[in-house]
């Protein structure tokens, strides 16, 4: 993650009914997982963290496949060694080589969680509370991060061209229509900034294909350097199509109120 390391001083979201997926990720410090939802006779990725575009395409899979993987709801399945091989086809080459252990959990709504590592019982319980709600930004949590030696950089990131370019190259290989694929990718990008590169109180979805994020970093780092690190991190998602991502520096802020105004502005 380099310079875009996530601040660790923010409060942990409270576990409530109607849990946002990004809050679920943060509560359980999950680095790689996907929520798959059924579309007719197939499952497709709807939300994720740590997935690239290729993996979101590769993860298209049949209901019959998942019935063989996790026949029972509300049970954690863990796969290691050769047992995980059937699941590796759901990942890009870049990701599958790094995966040593995978867990699968299907909730009562037939949503499936696929994640790296061993899923805890508490995480499985919280997955049952997942909803389509978004994280509620708590701007007062940002105040402790604003110090004399920090600078606040405001960014807008638009992925529309990159998503269209990638989708057009793969549209015959996926069960996603463009709208659902775009939703999956903007969720992935948002989650990376809300949970890995930055944090959820300094990041919002600005549109169906864009986010706003506020980078609070050491004054020694230039705008050009931070922008370059954003580009490098997004290459993990888009690979060669990352050049189509539009990253706009929108200025600097000097207070929590200014950050709030920027993130909330239409």
How does this structure look, described?
By secondary structure, this protein is α+β, with helices and mostly antiparallel strands. The protein has two domains: 21-127, Beta-Lactamase; 139-264, Alpha-Beta Plaits. 35% of the residues lie in helices and 24% in strands. The chain is built from ten helices and ten strands. It has helices at residues 21-28, 53-58, 63-69, 85-88, 93-96, 121-127, 160-170, 178-197, 223-238, 256-264, and strands at residues 33-39, 42-49, 61-62, 76-80, 101-106, 112-116, 150-158, 203-207, 210-218, 246-253. The protein has a six-stranded antiparallel beta sheet with strand order 3-2-1-6-5-4, sandwiched between helices. A four-stranded antiparallel beta sheet has the order 8-9-7-10, sandwiched between helices. β1 and β2 form a beta hairpin. α7 packs across α8 (178-197). The longest helix has 20 residues, at 178-197. The two termini are 29 Å apart. Residues 7-12 have low confidence and may be disordered.
């Amino acid at each position: 993650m380099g310079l875009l390391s996530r601040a660790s001083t923010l409060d942990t979201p409270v576990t409530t009914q109607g849990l946002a997926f990004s809050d679920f990720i943060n509560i359980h410090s999950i680095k790689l997982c996907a929520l798959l939802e059924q579309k007719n006779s197939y499952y497709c990725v709807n939300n994720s963290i740590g997935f690239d575009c290729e993996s979101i395409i590769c993860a298209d899979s049949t209901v019959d496949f998942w019935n063989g993987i996790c026949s029972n709801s509300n049970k954690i399945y863990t796969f290691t060694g050769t047992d995980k091989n059937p699941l590796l086809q759901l990942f890009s080459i870049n990701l599958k080589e790094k995966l040593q252990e995978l867990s699968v959990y299907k909730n009562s709504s037939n949503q499936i969680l696929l994640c790296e590592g061993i899923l805890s019982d508490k995480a499985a319980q919280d997955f049952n509370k997942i909803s389509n709600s978004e994280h509620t930004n708590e701007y007062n949590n940002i105040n402790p991060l604003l110090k004399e030696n920090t600078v606040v950089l405001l960014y807008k990131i638009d992925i529309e061209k990159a998503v269209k370019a990638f989708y057009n190259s793969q549209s015959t290989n996926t069960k996603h229509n463009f709208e659902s694929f775009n939703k999956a990718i903007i969720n992935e990008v948002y989650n990376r900034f809300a949970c890995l590169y930055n944090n959820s109180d300094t990041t919002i979805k600005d549109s169906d294909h864009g986010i706003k994020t506020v980078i609070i970093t050491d004054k020694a780092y230039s705008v050009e350097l931070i922008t370059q690190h954003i580009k490098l991190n997004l290459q993990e998602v888009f690979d060669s199509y990352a050049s189509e991502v539009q990253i706009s520096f929108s200025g600097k802020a000097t207070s929590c109120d200014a950050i709030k105004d920027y993130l909330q502005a239409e």
